[in-house]
From TrEMBL:
Membrane topology: Multi-pass membrane protein
A GO molecular function held by the record: transmembrane transporter activity
InterPro entries, A to Z: AA_ABC_transptr_permease_3TM, ArtM/GltK/GlnP/TcyL/YhdX-like, MetI-like, MetI-like_sf
NCBIfam families: HEQRo_perm_3TM (TIGR01726)
Species lineage: Bacteria, Bacillati, Bacillota, Clostridia, Eubacteriales
Region (Disordered), start-end ranges: 254-274
Name of the protein: Amino acid ABC transporter permease
Amino acid sequence: MTTFLNECAALLAEYGPSYLRGAGTTLLLALVGTLAGCLIGFAVGTVQTIPIDPQRDPLHKRIPLRLLRGLLRCYVELFRGTPMMIQAVFIYYGLMYVFNLHLEMWTAGFLIVSINTGAYMAETVRGGIVSIDPGQTEGAMAIGMTHWQTMLHVVLPQALRNIVPQIGNNFIINIKDTSVLSVISITDLFFVHKSVVGAEYTYFESAALVMLIYLTMTLIASYLLRLWEKKLDGPRNYDLNTTDTLAYTSGLYNAPDPDHKSQNLDMKEGASHV
């Protein structure tokens, strides 16, 4: 055990900066890929939920929309049904070989993580939109809002709250799965681990250090994402937002409090006696 700890300490002393740079690369790829993937997912998921009414919509609208949905469905199934490592090889080396398209290594890395995440987020967003009560859409349409206005101002804000946990899951998954990008020589944390092992032959010691770094990054990310979820939940208690003095003199509500320390009386212990 002492020898193992000494080997780990020696690796940290010599390769500590390299491990940190690799961890920074991993976080950058995961963060940018998750953000871009969310944008792709929101776009694809929104298009997939556009209603098609054969009686109301003209044929020239229905046919292109159905074709677009079919293409987007193929994209989602393709990138959800194949490993990211194969996608990386196909995009980075395949495009170069078949189409003579030379992608810069970092461009390829960001693209791979983004479109892979976008495929998963598309289904998450679609499910989040479908989960919203149809009455919300019907009410928005009743006051004259278009479909896109309804999605932007009514449906998507509510769907976002429902899918925040999945966004966090995708970010944590990306922190780990970016390790496969070492196949195209991106110097992430796993690539540094392979380099250290090749130089020192300290397989177990280096793997233990890398595992600890990955665990630290994912735990911190989980904690920050939970804080974000609580922030979206808002306060537990609310003051009545009204200027009607009768509502306060009736005894059901406290008067407005500039410090927001008052709350609805039916949430207090004494509410049961009202």
